[in-house]
Amino acid sequence: MKKLTLTLFLMVLISCSKKEKDFDSFEYSFAGTFTTVFSLKFTDSDTIFLREEWNIGRNEDCKLPKPKTNYFAILTEQQKREFISLLKNVDFTKINSEYFQDYLDGSAYNIIIRKDGFEKKVFVHSYKIPKELDTLSSWINITKQNLKLTKTNKQLKFESAFGMLPPPPPPPVKEILFKD
């Protein structure tokens, strides 16, 4: 009887224990020359939030999200497992905060990950980056194209978009004064 009670107690204890979170927050913002500018926020559930800032809008092969629009999507179980697996392959404690090469075109992205008080911000504009970081970024971009997006009016803010978006245009000039 004592063994049965102890076994039941351990089963209850194990089933009530909290599952360790893979991350507290994860943001990804991407800017591709002549393609798209967007930000994604992964939640610790199966929901992601997307802000499509701009895209080329001329691709007949796939329906592109509307620019300046917020969306949400639900990851499939397989997508969630793949994302967590790729995320775990990146040791963010050893990743540099910046990978930069001075070229004009191409793509750039920002990642911000937080977990248990640890925060890492990574800016990439380079072809020379760790393979696991490149694999994660590629997976996010490919997966984004296959998500079933639902428009949302929820206001979304992305810290990772800082520096990725062009500044707003200056106010229009109403009058030009010339001095002699």
Report on the architecture of this protein.
Helix 2 packs antiparallel against helix 3. The chain is α+β, with helices and mostly antiparallel strands. Strands 5-7-6-1-2-3-4-8 form an eight-stranded mixed β-sheet, with no helix packed on it. 24% of the residues lie in helices and 29% in strands. The radius of gyration is 22 Å and the shape is globular. The mean pLDDT is 85. The chain contains three helices and eight strands; from the N terminus they run H-E-E-E-E-H-E-E-E-H-E. Strand 6 and strand 7 form a beta hairpin. The longest helix is centred in the first third of the chain and has 15 residues.
Strand residue content: 25-35%
**Computed Rg:** 22 Å
User: SSE order in H/E notation?
Assistant: HEEEEHEEEHE
Helix content: 10-25%
Keywords:
180 residues, alpha+beta, 8-stranded mixed sheet, 24% helix
Task: List the SSEs and their pairings.
Elements: H1 2-16, E1 25-32, E2 36-42, E3 47-55, E4 69-74, H2 77-89, E5 98-100, E6 107-115, E7 118-125, H3 131-145, E8 150-151
Parallel strand pairs: 5-7
Antiparallel strand pairs: 1-2, 1-6, 2-3, 3-4, 4-8, 6-7
